Amino acid sequence: MAERTLRGARLGGQSFEDERGIEFAARQQVGYRCSQGHAFEITMSDEAEVPAVWECPRCGLEAENVSGVTREEKVEKPQRTHWDMLLERRSEKELQAILDERLALLRGGEIGPAHLHRASARKKKPARA
Questions:
Q1: DSSP state of 28
Q2: What element of type H or E holds 122?
Q3: Are 61 and 34 in contact (CB under 8 A)?
Q4: Residue 15 pLDDT > 80, yes or no?
Q5: CB 52, CB 71: distance < 8 Å
Q6: How confident is the model at residue 9 (pLDDT cuts 50, 70, 90)?
Q7: Whole-angstrom Cα distance, residue 81 to residue 50?
Q8: pLDDT at residue 2, as a whole number
């Protein structure tokens, strides 16, 4: 018998509940205008934090809030380079000493790619008689 009561009804597509006794959340209309002059409104909850900018649904540009909410300017730190980070760990005198030491090792053939030292190693070998 229960199967017959649902016959013909679209299951999941239609709700048989009515709106009696339902209290909707408080809403507000927030207006925006883009640089192209397009004006539109977005419905938001009263509890929502209203953004200063919203994407215009017509042209895709940033639209600003017409009620006076302004965008917060983010404080951006200057970009740190590898040199800046290196100077945080060592002084320039220390870096110069390390560079001189490594250059001496490189020139002496103790470090570095092998292909750079093969030719110099052949030259230094005494000639056989």
A1: E
A2: helix 114-124
A3: yes
A4: no
A5: yes
A6: low
A7: 37
A8: 56
Decide the pairing of beta strands 62-65 and 39-45: unpaired
pTM of the predicted protein model: 0.46
38, 24 Cβ separation under 8 angstroms: no
For residue 26, count other CB atoms closer than 10 A to its CB.
Answer: 8
Determine the residue type at 34: C
How many other C-beta atoms are found inside a 10 Å radius of the C-beta of residue 114?
8
Rounded to an integer, what is the distance from CA 38 to the centroid of its chain? 29
Q: Map residue 43 onto helix, strand or coil.
A: strand
Q: Which two tokens stand for residue 40?
A: 């539109």
Closest CA to 53 of 37, 33, 83, 75: 33
Structural contact between residues 56 and 34, judged by C-beta atoms closer than 8 angstroms = yes
Question: How many residues does this entry show for the chain?
Answer: 129
Q: Among all chains, which residue has been given the structure tokens 């927030």?
A: 30
- Let me know the angle formed at the C-alpha of 69 by 66 and 70, rounded to the nearest 5 degrees: 110
Contact (CB, 8 A) for 50 and 79: no
